[in-house]
Design the sequence.
């Protein structure tokens, strides 16, 4: 299934926000902390209680989110939302990543991670894009 959605970023309140949204919309909530993820070893211990992956699924609709974990940026209004591309193979998404990065800034190269393929760019128009493909 092809999915393109907005991705929400929070400054340490992802769990609280998604729990609140669940009381409003219902649905199934998934939360994974940095410390409980394969990425735990990459981040300092003081970030291990932050959410690296959150998703509230309401039927066919879902809200993906995490705490802001960019190491070289500060969370401010304007960089707390981004477009999230989560469909197709790593090869297909990698091609979209390359096209959208022209004239922009690659902040995280599209590469294999313990949770699958991931990349992040700020396009030529200032829009932040995150990309994900399953490891398979």
Sequence:
């Amino acid at each position: 299934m092809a999915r393109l959605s907005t991705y929400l970023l929070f400054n340490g309140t992802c769990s609280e926000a998604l729990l609140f949204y669940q009381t409003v919309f219902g649905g199934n909530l998934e939360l994974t902390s940095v410390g409980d993820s394969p990425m735990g070893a990459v981040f300092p211990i003081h970030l291990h209680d932050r959410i690296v992956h959150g998703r509230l699924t309401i039927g066919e609709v879902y809200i993906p989110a995490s705490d802001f974990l960019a190491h070289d940026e500060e969370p401010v209004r304007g960089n707390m939302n981004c477009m999230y591309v989560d469909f197709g193979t790593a090869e297909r998404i990698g091609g979209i990543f390359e096209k959208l990065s022209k004239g922009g800034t690659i902040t995280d190269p599209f590469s294999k991670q313990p949770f699958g393929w991931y990349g992040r760019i700020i396009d030529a128009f200032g829009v932040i894009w995150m990309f994900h493909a399953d490891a398979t």
User: Anything to note?
Assistant: The beta strands are 4-10, 28-33, 51-58, 61-67, 81-85, 105-113, 116-122, 128-133. Helices lie at 14-25, 90-101. The two ends are 15 Å apart (CA to CA). Residues 14-25 form the longest helix (12 residues).
